[in-house]
Amino acid sequence: MSASAEVLAADAFWQLLTVLFAPFWGSFLALFVRRWPAGVPVVTGRSRCEACGRTLAAGDLVPLFSWLRLKGRCRHCGAAIGLESPVFELAMLILALVVVPAAEPSGVRAFLWLVAGGLLLAVGVIDARHLTIPTAAVAVVGLLGLADGLIARTVLSSFPDPSIPDRMLGVFVGYGTMALLRHAYRRLRGREGLGGGDPLLMAALGAWLGWQTLPMALLLAAVTGLAFVLARGLLHRRWPRGSDMLAFGPFLIAGGLGALAWRLVGG
Fold it and tell me: What's the domain range around 169?
């Protein structure tokens, strides 16, 4: 087999693995979103029904199919399982079907994009619910961004990729900018305005976007956050008070994705 044929075969393997792995990755992320805020170990212990505590069999854990077969209820007690797991599983499957052709010809990059995208989704959900960011997950996202930069140097891409130095600088600029904003708000208002995880999240986004795209990401995050506050105020007829807290992590993630799309279309 020629070298080019081996490369094509390896890429095809990673592309197939990405699609097959996606729903299982979504299942794990749904578990992570439920367990991590409660301090329950995520990677140890058998999966159990949260209502009756019975251990779930392997046949009950097949992504998407088990939920459909059991009609969204526990096989033992009949309690509703909820939509969180199938939603995450379906979301990751859809993401895989998007990133595989987008990352072509590199199947490895598609796999990295799937893992990082799933972690960002989980981080956003956790922050929105609990006003805290799992820093270990954010660190993994950042490392994956740097790894993606290394792989990008070896493949021909149809879109502009930031260089490794730009990504490294993006980590420092992202963290420094958010840390400075957090410090300035605390000095001016005498209380916290940003969480401690927001600078780390911006640093991780910088590892993917490079430093040049971070201003656009921050601008989009601020705009989407303001739009959310205005929409919620108009809908509920209640405007935020000074003591109200709002998770900024989901808007940083949305801003990062928006800035990425802006860069890909040649902005």
Answer: 131-267
